[in-house]
Amino acid sequence: MTVLMEFKEVDVHYGPIQALKKVSLTVNEGEIVTLIGANGAGKSTLLMSIFGQPRISSGEIIYRGEDISQKSAHYVASHGLAQSPEGRRIFPGMSVEENLLMGTIPIGMDHAEEDMQRMFELFPRLLERRNQRASTMSGGEQQMLAIARALMSRPKLLLLDEPSLGLAPIIVKQIFQILKDVASTGMTIFLVEQNANHALKLANRGYVMVNGEIRMTGTGEELLVNPEVREAYLGGH
Amino acid sequence: MDIVLQQLVNGLTLGSVYGLIAIGYTMVYGIIGMINFAHGDVYMVSAYITAIAIALLTFFGIESFPIIIIGTLFLTVAVTGAYGWVIERVAYRPLRNSSRLSVLISAIGMSLILQNYVQLSQGANQQGVPTLLTGAIRFSVGDGFVQITYMKLLILLISLLGMGVLTYVIQKTKLGRMCRATQQDRKMASILGIDTDKVISTVFVIGAMMAALAGVLITLDYGAFDFYVGFIIGIKAFTAAVLGGIGSLPGAMLGGLILGLSEALFAGLISSDYKDVFSFSLLVLILIIRPSGLLGKPEVEKV
């Protein structure tokens, strides 16, 4: 297996506070890797540090053999990394279609129409709302839009930050079903989640983060049955 | 009756010019949240470039007035756009992650630098350009008549054209989407692969170009200018931007028109000595009654 992205002993500081402590993890090509942890463990910080926001204070982020930790966000984005960020961050004043077009910045508009059709097949709800202002949509629809927007850049690595956050269980189920479909196309996915149950069932491998440190790692099944993980993240039953 | 109509015509042209300049304030505010106090002086610089462009074109033996006017428009818009780029690069980009106050002070400094630079290099005396477009259309209304000079007509035409092209670019093109994305969420825009620094530069260039359109037109119409003309018209355009809702592009155009029309009507019907008092009273009123402006949105963070 080829390594697509690797964190090597990454530290991140916010002023005097250390948010990530010597974090090392790898994502191989074609894999679904998940990072689970409680609120405030540093999961989103880790995802955003890939785009240099914040910059890491030591260590390396290797992506396809190159240290990208000091590159600009738009450089990273134009080399095949796409993120559906925490809080979705869709553009509220734009229509669904315009939001999707924003995803094509790194690759140009050549495949825009074709890819948009693909997104509408994947997320039929978005087709119904095609010309609607994104801010008027429900949380679940906005989440779908954020994922679809990320996919529009035809990424080599899809980064997802808590796609289940604040959504009804039935919508969460739908979204994870769609992620499964996306994964079956061979897409490499790095998924950050609090919803350990869904995330570990979907993932090949997982990491558990506690207070900015990687505490445990293993395959999805291993972590699912691990007593510590069950106690901390799966309600202990 | 004819006075009202005449002032409506004057107000419309004045308002479209305010609108053009207000675009620069509103777009810059929309994208980096600062009031670019040097914007009025960019307008002032464009008046000088207008004179230089006319002199240059005449020097190279061009005698046809329409070609001189068109050539001056292109030259001035291009050179002033370059000024806009340099100003952002020198005075604002180094302060990108500093507090709003630092950027504001930098803007005031930039304004002083531009005024003094022009005063030193071009002299403190009033300068002038020859009249290139004469003649007018007259309509009789009742006992009197309403007169629209060809120059005023040109102002209206070019302003509307400028606003139309800009609206199209912002609404329909990739560049426009990149501007709007950067305005709505700069961090997300950068994650999607947009070079947001470049977009911010572009916005400054666009603002300066719109101010340059206004600068050429007003200079050709009025004839005279000095290094201080940017101040009052800059504040008027700022008022227009606030009136329409700062950050909103259609708001700036609408605000410009409303300010121009009401100012012209006030000057024609009540007192032309106090028209500036009237404009700024309007600004105070808006800030009290509707601080977000006519088309502006109140600042609410969305989730």
From TrEMBL, chain A:
Residues 5-236 form the ABC transporter domain. Keywords: Amino-acid transport, ATP-binding, Nucleotide-binding, Transport. The keyword Transport applies. Pfam families: ABC_tran. InterPro entries: AAA+_ATPase (IPR003593), ABC_branched_ATPase_LivF/BraG (IPR030660), ABC_transporter-like_ATP-bd (IPR003439), ABC_transporter-like_CS (IPR017871), BCAA_Transport_ATP-bd_LivF (IPR052156), P-loop_NTPase (IPR027417). GO terms for molecular function: ATP binding. Belongs to the ABC transporter superfamily. PANTHER family: HIGH-AFFINITY BRANCHED-CHAIN AMINO ACID TRANSPORT ATP-BINDING PROTEIN LIVF. This is High-affinity branched-chain amino acid transport ATP-binding protein. It comes from Marinomonas vulgaris.
TrEMBL record, chain B:
It comes from the Bacteria. The keyword Coiled coil does not apply. InterPro entries: ABC_transp_permease (IPR001851), BCAA_transport_permease (IPR052157). It holds the Pfam family BPD_transp_2. The keyword Transport applies. It is found in: Cell inner membrane. Keywords: Amino-acid transport, Cell inner membrane, Cell membrane, Membrane, Transmembrane, Transmembrane helix, Transport. It is a multi-pass membrane protein. The chain crosses the membrane at residues 12-35, 42-62, 68-87, 99-118, 150-170, 199-219, 253-271, 277-296. Belongs to the binding-protein-dependent transport system permease family. LivHM subfamily. This is Branched-chain amino acid ABC transporter permease LivH. It comes from Marinomonas vulgaris. The lineage of its organism: Bacteria, Pseudomonadati, Pseudomonadota, Gammaproteobacteria, Oceanospirillales.
